[in-house]
């Protein structure tokens, strides 16, 4: 018997979207310490509004909004907005998870899979994406491809943008190898900080035509088959979209899964991944590249529409302009804001209820709500968050981020690329302090002083474990003028210096017979880099194991190669970090604390007899090719044996099966004879005592 009313719609027929309302990064810190990135204003409108508007205009009928950091704020905002009303044409369901239990995109999708919310195709998108793309035709294209390719798991959307364009994020540079006949992705590589790329020869042999594309930008929008969620659940190495793509491409022959790309034509999509991209996308919105997602067509009932004037100047109701004040071009001003006499504003956004004094210069700045800027201030290429106060004569350097509630005393000058927050940073001080130090800030190095007298401002320091060279460079480049000629000359000098250093280093450290496979060599280089950073920053072993496992999966190396290359990388570290090897007891003095620190890593990989034999083979190869290490090998074996990393049985089995290399017999085997003799005698004494 049929149900009353219209026929119940199957979930497969409903157009679904998953909106990830967390970036799992600290790119916008300290402003995101107290507010989720999805609710940060972009041209006086929360970012999540743009994403939801985009999905609505595409014909999406139901959206799951997945929140992690500050989930309660997002839930409350949506509850009070038009999106959660019964008359809304798109239904919204908010899913939240604790930051302790969800640290990545992969964790989010595994959680969604565990809740069994989705059974059909769905659109996956980040809440910090600004897009006017019509997604339904791409969804239909994805379904059509599945008729001929049952293994299709995803169609990922890219847009064309040449290197150097402001819409390209320097931290998301990539190269794709694509089959041009069907749009299938054959190889995916992130190229940030890479000088060389390698591609498998088999790819060119198997495919008659291969396009290598460096002119594509990831939009962070995907059309996903339902199998995507179980694939994430089955593999905890999938933390990011890049991890997922590399894993699918590596195992394509086994699982028969494929990923396709779609290139946008005439549409706009951009990911607000960091502050420079926030600047670029804000300008695109003001200059109407994202139409109809523009300020004067804002459909939100919580923020009034802007009126558009010449030269892309937008104003909300209640804006007051004093005499001789100038809004030059590409400017948006929020409701009830006041701008003083002779103040000049260009290519900037001013939020609601802001007070700008007289003779203020504002260029390429983003000023959020309730900011008070007194007379004679100068702001150029900066972001100033809610409730900040700049007293008279304050000058903000280029690339600065001023956190919410910061108060700067009169005449304060902020250097370029400084980030300030209103409260002292948390100090990870594991040492106890005396009562005298507690009361005297000059004696206690852990008491953080304000940026300047009479200011409520403290310098924000990005946590070491979250920092990266690429990210720091991106922050420093925001708003800086770069001389391309001098930059080119500097790059050439750096390349020459790097080459000289690499040649010198190659003479000092020879890790032995690295596999001919380029993937294994790349794996070794990544492991060496991870271990060096892990030792210098004292990263926990569990986290390093996750990094190494991720590299193992990315380069598809065998466990034997993992066991050997990890050991060789550890043995190389003293020479890598000091650029010197003496062949004396100093080598062991340098190596011992390194091995001590990496004991959890070694115990993770050397769990059985075969893995121990692999590590002993690596020790021997390293010793054959590095004469300075020979004098330390007995101490290394004794140390690893004493720490239960290597078993007695494994060591004796290795020693009784000599290699074919005669040089190893003359050097390594002869050197370790005293230790083997001691080991055998200790075994005999133990047997006699037991009898």
Automatic annotation (TrEMBL):
Organism superkingdom: Eukaryota
GO molecular function list: guanyl-nucleotide exchange factor activity; transferase activity; translation initiation factor activity; translation initiation factor binding
Pfam families the UniProt entry points to: LbH_EIF2B, NTP_transferase, W2
Entry's transmembrane regions: none
Alphabetized SMART domains for the sequence: eIF5C
GO CC term, one of those recorded: eukaryotic translation initiation factor 2B complex
Plastid recorded as keyword: no
Ranges for domain W2: 517-689
Spans annotated as Disordered: 420-439, 479-514
Matches recorded under SUPFAM superfamilies: ARM repeat, Nucleotide-diphospho-sugar transferases
Keywords attached to this entry: Cytoplasm
Biased composition (Acidic residues): 430-439, 481-514
Cellular location(s): Cytoplasm, Cytosol
Family: Belongs to the eIF-2B gamma/epsilon subunits family.
Subunit structure: Component of the translation initiation factor 2B (eIF2B) complex which is a heterodecamer of two sets of five different subunits: alpha, beta, gamma, delta and epsilon. Subunits alpha, beta and delta comprise a regulatory subcomplex and subunits epsilon and gamma comprise a catalytic subcomplex. Within the complex, the hexameric regulatory complex resides at the center, with the two heterodimeric catalytic subcomplexes bound on opposite sides.
Record-given protein name: Translation initiation factor eIF2B subunit epsilon
